[in-house]
Amino acid sequence: MRIFIVGAGEVGKHLCEQLSIEKHEVVLVDRDAERLRKVERELNIMTVQGNGASARVLEQAGVDKADLFIAVTDFDEVNLISCILAQQYGVRRRVARVKNEDYRAIVSPLSEHQLGIDLIINPDQAMAEEILKISALSEAFEMVDFAHGEVVVLGYHIREGNPLCGVSLAQLRDLRGLYDFLVVAIVRDGNTLIPRGNDEIRSGDRIYVALNRQDMAAVEDLLGFKSAAPKKVFIIGGGEVGFRVAKALEDQDIDVSIVESDHLKCERLAEGLANTVVLNFDGLDAHELVSEGIEDADLVIAVTNGDTTNILASLLAKHHGAKKCITRISRPDFIPLLGKLGIDVALSPRLVAAKMILQFVRRGAILSVATLLGTDAEVMEFVISERWAFTNRTLKDARFPVGVNVGAIVRHGKVLIPSGETVMKAGDRLVIFSMRKDLPAVEKFLTA
Questions:
Q1: At which of 90, 121, 152 does a domain end?
Q2: Is 368 helix (H, G, I), strand (E, B) or coil?
Q3: Whole-number pLDDT of residue 388
Q4: CA gap 208, 206 in Å, rounded
Q5: Is the dihedral of CA 227, 230, 233, 239 positive or negative?
C-alpha cells in the first residue's frame, strides 16, 4: 500500500516506523528539512520537503498514486486542507488529526461528515478515553478489548512478593481451574517476549493476560491482584484532558478533585463541573496536596502540558501514599524509564493518537490491530473464512509462525482460551499476539 503522511512530528514518525516495518510504501511530507533528514537516516522511506497543504507539493510527491492519506501536523487547518486536496487527487481514504473540538461537531460545515474525511482524531479526546479505560482497574496499567469487548487483554506489573514469581506458564496453565486465561506477552528489561510453556514469570516483569471479560474479577483474584474502581481521584492539570476525565468520573459518582494553578482556568472548570472540587494552587505544592488529602487518593492523574511537572507531581503523590498514578508524557522514549521511578502508568498523547490511526489503517482481512503501548508486540483480530488453508485444523497442526500466540477464540459469542488441540472453524474470531517485526509474515500466513 502507498501511504502519504503529512507531518514529521512524534505521531508522524511513529506511524512511519510502524508502516515501513509492515512493508508499506511510505511518503513523508514536512516543511522541516532537519526532521526529514533524521527520519531518512533511520527509515527506508521517501521524504518530501514542503507544505502539506500545497497542491503543488503534493502533486510533485505523487499524491495521485496514494492509497491512504494521513495528516498529523500540529496545525488543524493544514491537516484539513491537505485531506481535502488529497480527495481532489482521488485518494479514497483520508485521516486527519484535529485538536479543535468545533471541527468534530456534526453541525459544523467542517465536520468529519461534511468534509468526507474517513477519520478525524482529537488527541485530547483519545487521551481522556485511554485514561478512563485504565482508571477503572486499579491494578492494571493497560487494557485493550477485542471481539466487541468480549475478549480483554490486561497488563500487570509483577512486583516482588507476587505469588506468580518463579511460576512457569506450564504450571500456571495447570492452576487455572474454572477460569481460562493466557499470558500472551512478557516485557522484561525492555524486551518483549511471546512466551512458551517453560518460560517463568519474574519479579519486575510486565505481563499481558488475555481472558474473557466476564472472568476479569475471578482471574485477577487468582493471579494475586485486587482491582477496584477508584473512590477518590486527584487530577493535576485543568486543561482539556483533565476536564474531560473529571467530567466522566464525577458522572460515575467518584470523589474528584482537580488542581490547577491558573485562576481563569479554575473559574471555567467550576462552571463546567457539577461535583468536582476545583483547587487553585500549583500541583507541586506538597503542603497543599497533603492538606487536601492526597495520601488517601486511590488514583492521581497528572495531565498538565509539562512533562517535568507531571513526573514530579506523580512521584510526590506516590511518596505521600497515593495508590496509583497515571502520568501524561509527551516524549514516548522516556516511557520505559518511568516505571523504574515508581510511576504506574505513563501515557503519551502522541502514541495514543498513533495507536488509533493504526487501528484504522490496518482494517481489511484482519479486522483490527492494536499496539501494546511501550512494547514491540501487536495484537490482531482475524476472522477465519472457509477458504483459509487451516480451517478445521488444530492450532498445533496449523504451525503458526514463530513468535505468535493465539490468545483467544470467539465462537458464536462464546470466548475460548485455546490449547494446541483446539480446532479452528470458519467464522471463528482469533485474537493473535505477535512481535511487530513478524507482522508481514503473520499477515501472509493468515491470508493463505
A1: 121
A2: strand
A3: 86
A4: 7
A5: positive
